[in-house]
Structures are given as C-alpha cells and as structure tokens.
Amino acid sequence: MSKMNAVGWFDIYVNELDRAVTFYEQVFDQKLEPIGDPTGENQMMSFPADMSAYGAGGALSKSEHASPGPGGTVVYFSSEDCAVEESRVSAAGGKVIRPKFSIGEYGWVSLCQDTEGNFFGISSMT
C-alpha cells in the first residue's frame, strides 16, 4: 500500500456563501466554481483543483451541520510569495492577523482571517 498525504480535501464553512466567494476570489485572483453536494444538503463553491496533482482540493461550504469560526483547523494555501495574496486580504474585507514571517527552512507564512471569521494561512518558499 502506498502512503497517502494526510489531507485529501478541505471544506471552509461559511455563513454568507456569496460574500466568502468574493473574498477568496479577490485574495487569490482565481475563480471558484459551483460543485454539487451528493447529499443535496450543502451549497458548495470549489477552489480550482487538479485531483491528480500533489496537494488537496477543497471548497467553501454552507451547511446546517457546521459553522465558521476561529480557533479550529487552519488551512494553508500555497503561493509563490505569500506577501502578494496577503496584500489583497484587507481590501477584500478580511484581516491580516500576522504579516508574512519566516518559518525557517520551510519558507514563509502569513496568517489571516476571512469575512466569515475563519483563520487561514498562506505559505510560500519566498
């Protein structure tokens, strides 16, 4: 059996799907696409993903079974230079919690908060 990466998919729970979509599209300069939920219970908008490539795909999800908020799991988005996306966070309605800082040999990280109150990170090697 081959080893698998720990994360295969992620959901970021939101209260206002349209507001959250606008925020993430502005920060990452990418279009999110609607995807179906097999249960029919959630509204979901997917980040661009190639499920055969390294890393995990994921979506913004509006659900009656979960809600957004700080203090839980932190999703780290990959970037060429996290300062670029960090510079878009405030204008998109979010907050920069900790500006770009070094994590030694593992590169750089910015910690932010989205319009729904979720914490997220942006990581890069430069």
Write the layout of secondary structure elements.
Blueprint: E1 9-13, H1 17-28, E2 33-35, E3 43-46, E4 57-62, E5 75-78, H2 82-89, E6 95-102, E7 108-113, E8 119-124
Parallel strand pairs: 1-4, 5-8
Antiparallel strand pairs: 2-3, 3-4, 6-7, 7-8
Give structural notes.
With 126 residues, this protein is α/β, with parallel strands linked by helices. It has 2 helices and 8 strands, in the order E-H-E-E-E-E-H-E-E-E. The strands form 2 sheets. A 4-stranded mixed β-sheet has the order 1-4-3-2, with helices on one face. Strands 5-8-7-6 form a 4-stranded mixed β-sheet, covered by helices on one side. Strand 6 and strand 7 form a beta hairpin. The termini are far apart. The mean pLDDT is 91.
Name some characteristics of this structure.
2 helices; 126 residues
Report low-confidence residues grouped into runs of 5 or more: none
Coarse morphology:
globular
Total strands: 8
What is the chains' assembly state? single chain
* Structural class by secondary-structure content: alpha/beta
User: What order do the SSEs take from the amino end to the carboxyl end, as H and E?
Assistant: EHEEEEHEEE
Strand order of the largest sheet: 1-4-3-2
Secondary structure: helix percent: 10-25%
